[in-house]
Every structure is written in C-alpha cells, then in structure tokens.
Amino acid sequence: MKLYTRTGDEGKTSVIGGRLMKSHIRVEAYGTIDELNAFVGQAVTQLQDDLFRDIKGELERIQHELFDCGGDLAAVKKSDKIPYKTNQTMIDYLEQRMDIYIDEAPSIERFILPGGAEAAATLHICRTIARRAERQVVQLLETNEAYNLYVLKYLNRLSDYLFAIARVVNARLKIKDIEYIRSAAVFKNGIRKEEK
C-alpha cells in the first residue's frame, strides 16, 4: 500500500459523499480538529503516569472522540448508513469530569496566563486550538450545510475541560497559576460571575 494517492494534487480532497476544495471551511474545521488531536497526544506524553493516570486516560479517550468529530464533519450529506458518532453522552462526560476537577484546582478570581508545567502549557495550546475549531464549525453552520450539531457543543465543552485540567496539572505539581495582573476580578470559585 502506498501512502500517497496523487488525488489531492489539484487542491481537492475526498469527503464522505463527494469531493471538496481543501480550502472549504468543512475541511478546515476537521483539519483543525486533527491538529488539536496531535497536540492532545503531545500533552499525554508529557504527563507522568504516577500523578496523572486519570487525566492521561481521559485524554486518550478524547483523542478517539476527536476522530469521531472529524469523521462527522467529513460527511457532507446526512446518511442513515453512516450515523453520526458525536453525541450528548460525550459532552456529559466532559461536564462530569470538570465538576470533579473544579474542586481540585485553587479558586481563581482573575484570568490566568497560559503556562506553568510543560504539560499545562501544552493543554492551554490544545484549549486555543479547540476554540479555533469551534469558530470554524460555527462558520460551517452559517453555510446551512448539513453537519452534526453535537460537534459544536463538544468542542465548546472540550475547551473548558482543557482549561480545567491545565490548572489541575499545575496544582498537582504545586506550580501556581500566574494571574493576569491587569484583569479585574471576573471569576468566583472558578465560575465567571455572568454565568451564575
């Protein structure tokens, strides 16, 4: 089997149900999810087994779920033969894990700067890529093309989860988050005031 096909040499790529230009927002969105998956994999390699076995297991699960998201976005037409994979259960799981982690990290009142431990810094990169993927899926939504709405919800929740575990990584390593010194107090016990 060859790794190259030459079918994309003219700027198009195959998707489920047809072919699209590689610049299409759908392709851009699932390509960004692939980029996110790669950085999540990097974060996994930076976490020590003894301290972070739980988080590593969750991130490996998330890598599979990101493949599901990408596959759902690659389907240009809804098909009963190939059902969507991203679902509410995946979102509920992220929320359950965040509810646990919110009590493990110290409370914050201000925005924090990405950084701390190497793995925490990588998780903040993951968070920003998840937000970019989310924005791209919103652009896809604006085209009125078919796609699985759970992908958008999942990416939204995932970025929050990544923020939460980046803080937990620093907390377990006894590294303080660095607050953005020009920030007003915008959080109360880890929750934005306007979300109460």
Automatic annotation (TrEMBL):
GO molecular function: ATP binding; corrinoid adenosyltransferase activity
Keyword annotations: ATP-binding, Cobalamin biosynthesis, Nucleotide-binding, Transferase
GO term, biological process aspect, one: cobalamin biosynthetic process
Annotated InterPro entries: CblAdoTrfase-like, CblAdoTrfase-like_sf, PduO-typ
Pathway linked to the protein: Cofactor biosynthesis; adenosylcobalamin biosynthesis; adenosylcobalamin from cob(II)yrinate a,c-diamide: step 2/7
EC number: 2.5.1.17
Source taxon at top rank: Bacteria
Domain Cobalamin adenosyltransferase-like: 3-169
Annotated family: Belongs to the Cob(I)alamin adenosyltransferase family.
Record note on quaternary structure: Homotrimer.
Name under which the protein is recorded: Corrinoid adenosyltransferase
Organism: Halalkalibacter hemicellulosilyticusJCM 9152
Lineage: Bacteria, Bacillati, Bacillota, Bacilli, Bacillales
